[in-house]
Every structure is written in structure tokens, then in C-alpha cells.
Amino acid sequence: MAPAPVALSCGEPAGIGPEIAVKARALLGDSLPFFWIGDPRHLPPGSRWHEIDDPARARDVPADSLPVLPLPFAAPASPGQLDPANAVGVIAAIERGVALVQAGAASALCTAPLHKKALKDGAGFAFPGHTEFLAHLAGGADVVMMLASPLLRVVPATIHIPLADVPRILTPDLLERVIRLTHAGLIRDCGIAQPRIAVAGLNPHAGEGGAMGAEDDAIIAPVVARLAAEGMAIRGPLPADTMFHARARAGYDVAVCMYHDQALIPIKTLDLDGGVNVTLGLPFIRTSPDHGTALDIAGKGMAEPSSLVAALRMAHEMAAARQA
Fold first, then answer.
1. Is 249 known to sit in a ligand binding site?
2. Does the annotation place 268 within a ligand binding site?
3. Of 15, 107, 131, 200, which sees the most CB atoms within 10 A?
4. 160 among annotated binding-site residues
């Protein structure tokens, strides 16, 4: 049986989310069933859309029309101009999507970009971002962030912290937790029976035997050795400067990196428009385009939908893998 349609939450209505949702539907047609949760008033003028009252009806909507599960917001939206009055609606769209996935009415949740300051100003949003909020809605799930494309998958062990804090935050327990969640996620959601994991070093040349820092030998190497002894296909710490060329990438399924830019620079260099943000560890599938709200180009018809299309496709493929 085919997976249920994918739910797409609207994200920040003053950003490019509504525009790329319409463009993604135009590109995908009815080849991939999904529906948009949001206020139809926020769609670009002249957009073709069709109201549905049940996610299953998304399959019945003409290929040139966006299936919309309406969710009224407090106010209209002006492209590029944040309105805190709509913050509650943005949060409600995410909550509705999660509820539908948890109920089995949707196979996965894809989230359009949100604007954290607008949510904080308008609704007192206390979470750093989508990932933490979704973990909360899932009952406090332990999660990690993976950026993925057909060319590369990366998982940063530490994310939005200053580089100076990474050696202190990067503990053996944290690294082991991230690797185990990554390993389980690739098996469950990517259909990879025995994931091959490459672990980057923290320091240049992976510490070069302690000459360039002790963390690689003291923290990373023992964790990798312990997991390898359990039967995990894992290598590291590896010098990060030689991990991301084509021949090296052919030897692993995912790279676990030690900090934000070490992970995100290579994937954004290799596939800026095709990268997808995936949350591993949730009891449901969640993907998102790997870009922000782009307020500066909202409403100008310039927004590129490639990353959203990739996120919808990956959500659909992961749903099929998990169902299988």
C-alpha cells in the first residue's frame, strides 16, 4: 500500500514558504501526494489551490492545483513584512501536521522555514527552532539533525554553539548518543541495513597523534573503537579536509562531524539547492528545505523550490522505507 500523503506546514507566511509550496506542486504534479497546511490568503495571488477536509483527499486534487488543508490565521500576510499576530497560526500549523502524522493520516511532515524571532515576539515561542519544538511535541524525543542530499549525508555532533565552546560540549557521551541515533535513523528511515559511518576529527589532521590537540585521541577515538567492537561499520577520527571528495564519500553513508560548519560547508558546497534537513530520532518522519524564510525575496517570484521538492521527495521515500 502506498504511503499516505505528506503534510507540509506553511512556515512563516511573510517568507517564501507559500510561494515555493505552489511551485513545488507545479513541478511535482500528482507524482507525489502532499498537502499544505495554512491560510489560503497567504498564497501568492492567482495561485491555483483546492480545499480539502481530509488528507486522503489530496490524491483527488488536479495535478495543477495545490491541495490545502485550511488553517485560519489572525491576519493576512505581506511578503517580506513580519506580523507577530500570525505567530500563533505558524505554531498551530506545525502542531496540526504532527497530530496528523501521529494519527497516520499523513505519512511524514515537511516543514517550511519559520522565523524564530517572529514566533518569540508574537507567541513567546521558547524553543531554539523546529527541531527542538518537534522533539517536545513527540514527548521529549532524543533527536539529531541530519543534512542530506544524493551526494552526501552529514550529522553535526554540536550545532548552534560558538566554536570556542565545542571542545567543552563535545563529550564521549554526547558523541556516542549522536552516532547511535544516526545509525538507528539510517536503518529505519533510509533503508540502509548496515550504515557505514565516517567520523570526522575535531582538530586539523585529526589531532596528528596529539600534536594538534588531545580531543581526537581522548574523546573521539575511544567512542569509535567501542562502537566498532559492537559490530558497527564505523571509522574515525578522520582528517576532515580529506573526507568530502568524491572517492572518500563513496566509502561511507553518513559523516558525523564535530561542529556546525564542518558538516554544513561541504554539503552546501556540493548541493546547495538539493540539501534537506532531516530530524532523526522522532517517532515520525520530518524533513525541511535547507534554507530560511528569505524575506528579502519573498513575493518577487524569485524563490527557488528545489530544496523543498527534495525535502518532499525525501519525506515520501523515508515513509516508504519505514513502512517497508
1. no
2. yes
3. 15
4. yes
